[in-house]
């Protein structure tokens, strides 16, 4: 099964992406003022660049690191007699917590924020926003993930499930879609919903520094970073960052150079 890891991930990615695009087209949550042709090609090209870069720099990827750790007996779970089902569940929880903490770190450290802010500088919020990350951030994230997987001794099955789930939920909770209020209220007890994560993309700094979770919503509640709704409401809130409001910033070359500039005027 693990030999098919790239195909499994690609199939899940493509299926969820197409489903979210269709959902956004049929029932958008917010009107968009910048056309898809002005954003989507650049955001999707970043996915291609990041995927190729990861495969070039880390040919084993996270699943390969888990298999290697199991073979060599590295990591916590490989040193303990823990049932495989418990290892999988605990690995999923711990890896998700680490992604939450990593996300907060990329907001708190100025140098890391310069990389991560490209994700926040999108002037609209839809499924492709969940895919646009700077290549350097992607590489750093993979280094941290490989270290976590190896030290934890996470089973390869857990790592594969985590990668697929994280990718799918990131596209879901960045979707320009809405759920009935009652359903959203209950679902966000178990999963980060689009209305919950959209607050994180508000132009207001206090809202940007909330709702860091990508998959599980529990960490935001536990660490007091949860905010239920934006001050201006879901339809009235402004998406993006104050210093990057020029639509030319949505072009691929501007996205790649953005961490090295102070604002859209420099």
Automatic annotation (TrEMBL):
Protein's UniProt keywords contain Cytoplasm: no
Pfam families: FA_hydroxylase
Subcellular location: Endomembrane system
Keyword Transmembrane set for record: yes
GO cellular component: endomembrane system; membrane
GO terms of molecular function: glyceryl-ether monooxygenase activity; iron ion binding
UniProtKB keywords: Lipid metabolism, Membrane, Oxidoreductase, Transmembrane, Transmembrane helix
Superkingdom: Bacteria
Record-annotated membrane-spanning stretches: 6-23, 44-68, 80-101, 142-166
Membrane topology: Multi-pass membrane protein
Residue span(s) of domain Fatty acid hydroxylase: 89-225
GO biological process, one term: lipid biosynthetic process
PANTHER family, alphabetized: ALKYLGLYCEROL MONOOXYGENASE, STEROL DESATURASE-RELATED PROTEIN
Protein name per its UniProtKB record: Sterol desaturase
Species of origin: Oceanisphaera arctica
Organism classification: Bacteria, Pseudomonadati, Pseudomonadota, Gammaproteobacteria, Aeromonadales
């Amino acid at each position: 099964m693990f030999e098919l890891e790239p195909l499994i991930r690609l199939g899940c990615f493509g299926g969820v992406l197409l489903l979210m695009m269709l959902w956004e087209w049929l029932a958008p949550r917010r009107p968009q003022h910048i056309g898809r042709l002005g954003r989507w090609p650049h955001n999707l090209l970043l996915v291609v660049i990041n995927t190729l870069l990861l495969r070039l720099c880390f040919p084993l990827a996270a699943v390969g690191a888990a298999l290697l750790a199991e073979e060599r007996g590295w990591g916590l779970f490989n040193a303990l007699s823990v049932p495989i089902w418990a290892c999988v569940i605990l690995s999923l929880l711990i890896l998700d917590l680490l992604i939450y903490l990593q996300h907060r770190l990329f907001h708190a450290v100025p140098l890391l924020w310069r990389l991560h802010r490209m994700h926040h500088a999108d002037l609209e919020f839809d499924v492709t926003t969940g895919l646009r990350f700077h290549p350097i951030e992607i590489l750093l994230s993979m280094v941290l993930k490989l270290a976590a997987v190896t030290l934890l001794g996470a089973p390869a099955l857990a790592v594969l499930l985590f990668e697929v789930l994280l990718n799918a939920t990131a596209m879901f909770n960045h979707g320009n879609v809405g759920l009935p209020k009652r359903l959203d209220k209950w679902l966000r007890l178990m999963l980060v919903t689009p209305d919950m994560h959209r607050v994180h993309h508000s132009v207001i700094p206090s809202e940007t520094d909330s709702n860091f979770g990508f998959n599980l919503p529990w960490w935001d509640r536990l660490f007091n970073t949860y905010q239920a709704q934006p001050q201006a409401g879901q339809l009235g809130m402004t998406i993006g960052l104050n210093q990057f409001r020029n639509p030319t910033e949505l072009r691929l070359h501007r996205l790649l150079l953005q961490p090295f500039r102070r604002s859209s005027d420099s």
